[in-house]
Every structure is written in C-alpha cells, then in structure tokens.
Amino acid sequence: MPEAGGPRETRLGRRLPLPVLMLLAWLVPGLGHLLLGRRLRAAIFCAVIVVAFAVGLTFDGELILPHAGDPLSYLAAIASIGNGVLFFVARHFGLGQGVVTAAGYEYGNTFLLTAGMMNLLLILDTHDIGVGKKDW
Fold first, then answer.
1. In a domain, 23, yes or no
2. Arithmetic mean of pLDDT over the chain
3. Model-level pTM greater than 0.85?
4. Measured between alpha carbons, how far is 8 from 136 in angstroms, rounded to an integer?
5. What is the distance of C-alpha 122 from the center of its chain?
6. From start to end of 1-68, where are the E strands?
7. Of the candidates 94, 91, 66, 60, which has an alpha carbon nearest to the alpha carbon of residue 78?
8. Which one, 17, 28, 56, 96, has the greatest CB density within 10 A?
9. Residue 21 near residue 126 (C-beta atoms within 8 A)
10. CA 119 – CA 42 distance, rounded (Å)
11. CA 68 to each of CA 63, 65, 77, 98, 100: distance values in angstroms, whole numbers, following the listed order
12. 123 lies in a domain?
C-alpha cells in the first residue's frame, strides 16, 4: 500500500541507480525514502536520527574512530560513520570529542551509535523498497 500523501516513487527515485540511491540514503537520513516517495516515513526517520544524534552530542558522547589495538573500536567507528553527513559536519566543527568524565558520556555514546545503526538499517530498507521486496 503506498504511503498517504505521495506517489509510490518520484521520477528521480526511479532514474537513480540503486547504489546511488543507497549512498544518498546513507549520507542524509531519510533521503532514500524521500526519493522513493515515502515522504512521511522519510520525515519521521530523519527526525528520529537527528534528535538521537543531537542528544548524543548534548550528553558529551564521542564520535568514535578506530584505535589501533582495539578491535571493537572498528565496529563502533562503522556505527559512528553510519550517521552520514551528521558525522562529518560534527567532526568538522569539533563536536563529538567526548568527555569521559561527563556524567552522560556513556549515554551520549549510546545515542550516537544507535543513531548511526538506525541510519544503516534505513539503507537496507531503502534497498528493499527500491527492488520491490517491500511495498509498505
């Protein structure tokens, strides 16, 4: 069933190759769904991810990058970079450095990593809608 308020796909969503659509879905949370005509879903997903990301930064969380000798940091880095453009903008402005002594540090990390993982899952959802495996 198509989502209320829009066509099943936009013209641009139909013309874009699937890998490009998935790249755009990673860069900007909700953009893949928007290009596929899922406006309400795109707005809700974008809002949830941006709010979770902002809360993570507010709680002094860290946008984790890989550390040599710490294999789990590579997984956390994938989740951090999963935030797409939010990650790069925050790093550019020096945000997300993390304050280990802050009371909310671990909560902040959790929000930042969860936002990134949600965005990565949205890429898979965009793929499924794009190839016709999912219609709702």
1. yes
2. 91
3. yes
4. 9
5. 7
6. none
7. 66
8. 56
9. yes
10. 11
11. 16, 10, 12, 18, 19
12. yes
Token pair recorded at residue 134: 């999912």
Amino acid at 14: R
* Domain span holding position 37: 11-130
Give the residue from 126, 136, 135 showing the smallest Cα distance to 13.
126
Separation CA 67–CA 26 (nearest Å): 23
Task: Report in angstroms the alpha-carbon separations of 61 from 28, 29, 52, 68, 78.
Answer: 21, 20, 11, 20, 16
pLDDT tens string 54-77? 999 999 999 999 999 999 999 999
Q: For 79-121, what is each residue's pLDDT tens digit?
A: 999 999 999 999 999 999 999 999 999 999 999 999 999 999 9
- Residue 22 near residue 60 (C-beta atoms within 8 A): no
pLDDT at 135: 74
Residue that wins the pLDDT comparison between 16 and 116: 116
**Looking at the domain assignment, is residue 4 inside a domain?**
no
Domain count, the chain: 1
